[in-house]
Amino acid sequence: MLTQEDDVEIHALAARGWTKAAIARHTGRDRKTVAKYLARSAGERRESAPSCLEPFRLYLEARFEEDPHVDATVLHRELVDAGFDRSYPTLVRELRRLELRPVCLVCQQRRGRAPTVEIEHPPGEEIQWDWLELDKTPWGEPAYVLVGALSHSGRFRAVFCEQMTFGHLAEAAHTILVELGGTSRVWRTDRMATIVVPGTDRLTVDAANIAKHYGVEIAVCPPRRAQRKGVVEKAIQYLTRSWWRTARVSSPAAAQTSLDRWSVEVADERARPGGTVGEIGAAEPLRGLPALAYPAVITVQRMASRSALVAVDGNRYSVPPAQAGRTVTVLARVGDPTIRIVSAAGEVVATHRRAPASAGQTIRTSEHAALLEKAVLAAFTTDHACRRKANRPPGPKALAELARLAGHEQPPGGQVVSLAAYQQLADATTAAVSR
Questions:
Q1: Which has the closest alpha carbon to 286: 168, 386, 157?
Q2: Count of structural domains, the chain
Q3: Is residue 289 in a domain?
Q4: What is the sign of the dihedral through the CA atoms of 35, 38, 43 and 46?
Q5: 152 part of a folded domain
Q6: Rounded to a whole number, what is the distance in angstroms from the first to the last CA of the chain?
Q7: Are 367 and 271 in the same domain?
Q8: What domain range includes position 96?
């Protein structure tokens, strides 16, 4: 059988007037083979030889009907036992050529390869929400980005968050809504734990309350159907590849500033029928926002430093020096200008004015500063650290307490016997016995 290139060469030489014998000598082929290929019409193709799997086709169809994902190594082992005498690569090649393995529609759907249809989203109808998780960042700590995208225009905004708690979600969502210019009638999310009670189809109490606050309906995607919120999925993919991969940022504040600028200057300038994404998004009829954000509580735990400072959102807040090195809980209500720090015992140990996120400010009250200075001066010493291998046997006070515990304590008014004398007597007795 000639290759496609040999077939083309034979016809090209014949078109130039070469004889069959000359072509056969030139190509090293038999003259009858050359004649047969020249006699074949241009569109005619040689019939393929029967597949070596033909005798086993019914068996393979039955196996694939039972399990579309059965491994080819298993099939090869079973076919060899049934009389198949070809190699494993041959089996795989013939399975692909004959297309015997059926397509699993469930797996295709999960991988985003199944047939789909575009869903029409009326302007102002829906906003889709999702989290972008960044495990590795230039500043060495994981970050979480809440992305909100208008389903009709594709216009989106994103906010960096420290965690994915409901408090962080509520604060970031309000920021995004302000930047988009309002809210839609429907919020669509996946089955995130802060929105849906795990294992059920019911909204959490917080999710229901925030929906009432903004006057919206929350639509939750069906299980394992991430494509239903494909607008925000594509927005996250675009954001990750176009901005995050090449962003020169060294802190969450720098990342947020760069992301905001890129969203306006790059993402909003994408061309669409009828204008740019930014122009179409700005024309969507969004609802107005409440005067205040939903008052969700942001709760995080922190370890106070040796200098009695607690790091939160890129700022540091003071606590009493007694809390240094201890774990405290930081409480911040969305929209509230103050921040509270609670000790492990549940006592509010500090209340501060909340600084802008990632402002790099250190806020310490005069009271905490005075207490810290006093504690530092009280602990100041020039003495050497205690020797770890020093010999320090129990002293008179400890021996007296030990005697009391053993029941040898003298009654009140009785003669007080020196424990040192007892020690001398015991040493003398030991020396006499050794002689």
A1: 157
A2: 4
A3: no
A4: positive
A5: yes
A6: 113
A7: no
A8: 54-102
Q: Mind listing the pLDDT tens digit for each residue in 72-91?
A: 999 999 999 999 999 999 99
Identify the weakest region by mean pLDDT among 159-163, 197-201, 409-413: 409-413
Alpha carbon 392 to its chain centroid, in Å, reads: 55
Beta-bridge partners for 128: 149, 188
Token pair belonging to 24: 């056969």
Q: Is position 175 within any domain?
A: yes
- Point out which residues pair with 310 in neighbouring strands: 317
| Residue 387 forms part of a structural domain | no
Q: Which residue has the tokens 């297309």?
A: 99
List own/partner pairs for 59-67 with CB under 8 A and 24 or more apart.
Answer: 60/95, 60/100, 61/100, 64/100, 64/101, 64/102, 65/102
Per-residue model confidence as pLDDT tens digits over 23-52: 888 888 888 888 888 887 555 555 667 889
- What is the C-alpha to C-alpha distance for residues 358 and 433, in angstroms, rounded to an integer? 78
Bin 236: left if φ > 0, else alpha if -120 < ψ < 50, else beta: alpha
Alpha-carbon span 152 to 121, nearest angstrom? 5
**What's the pTM value of the predicted model, to 2 decimals?**
0.65
